[in-house]
Known about the structure:
With 473 residues, this protein is α+β, with helices and mostly antiparallel strands. The chain is built from 17 helices and 19 strands.
Amino acid sequence: xxxxxxxxxxxxxxxxxxxxxxxxxxxxxxxxxxxxxxxxxxxxxxxxxxxxxxxxxxxxxxxxxxxxxxxxxxxxxxxxxxxxxxxxxxxxxxxxxxxxxxxxxxxxxxxxxxxxxxxxxxxxxxxxxxxxxxxxxxxxxxxxxxxxxxxxxxxxxxxxxxxxxxxxxxxxxxxxxxxxxxxxxxxxxxxxxxxxxxxxxxxxxxxxxxxxxxxxxxxxxxxxxxxxxxxxxxxxxxxxxxxxxxxxxxxxxxxxxxxxxxxxxxxxxxxxxxxxxxxxxxxxxxxxxxxxxxxxxxxxxxxxxxxxxxxxxxxxxxxxxxxxxxxxxxxxxxxxxxxxxxxxxxxxxxxxxxxxxxxxxxxxxxxxxxxxxxxxxxxxxxxxxxxxxxxxxxxxxxxxxxxxxxxxxxxxxxxxxxxxxxxxxxxxxxxxxxxxxxxxxxxxxxxxxxxxxxxxxxxxxxxxxxxxxxxxx
Length: 473
């Protein structure tokens, strides 16, 4: 929670990009960028951010619209991804930066996203958000909220649907669009003085990560939105051989210089957004803890944290629904706005609480509101009306587990940071991971550094590792 969102996405409007003037396209991009940045958050590290911006500016300067406007930012997501919005908003995630091993690779990725903008592919995606998976109950949840007049209660119900979709994701471009963006991106990279083979090298790294994780490509971060077919990789490699590299000095000429710009980057989940330990959710920023049902799939999105049952027909979620107010004030407003709503008052671990139920269109929402630290939180359980009785006890148990975070729990929370270490002579990924206490496995470390699993590092070679450090924010 405050979590993260995997990504926001857009489908083509009926008339496509041709109906949009440049001014309208920029305005829409600005609006969507505000949504993305609010939900995902941005990485503010001044060194890494300045680096990404300078690389982006070099590439956009040789594009078909050097006048811009352009913005290049780092999205606060552990998923390796990059995306662009209409009007020139380009984002790379911190998860992607952790896998970059040369400025040429970064230039290839950013150039590709610039290609989507200049070819107006992003403009053609303006419209409805695309949901990733099971949408049946997620759609029903939206219908369930229709009968709610109270903004508080409607927001409680609607926001829970994200747990079924795990946020929104970027709609995939078609193969023709992807190939065109590759072509533009590699051309821009070569014009700006970069090696156009950087893009296929990065795609190779992602392919190795797929192999390491043992997952299907369709479930894999960047490749969900940028399908990596054999044909596409072959074309980018072949194209790179035909392009003449222009003049230009890289900002980070060596791996050591590049890694120094990324040193300290957060790796993996951000504890500030809450962490799961099996079914227990801990949120140090909000100073709370809650137990979700064991055996349910836990999810932490930009709007809620919660769990979905194995059958995908029920969900229970925690949401912050009202800030700087009391439970009494929130209830008074809800009762005033929603005719007929009745709350059953109680205490949960000494905290003021109230419970109500909303039924509509065959769906049931069991809502518990809790006043905590000057804010109001909601625990909402949703299921079909016919199954509601079976889940009632589970939803109530989850709500009653809400409590303040214990000091010992806070002190036990760790975060992983990208750090640069010097390898010893003939050291392997396994021995280096062990020596540095890396939270990356040996295979993860090898992939992140662009070496084979059984390779030996040279003495003094700069290597990226993920180091666990106390959470102190």
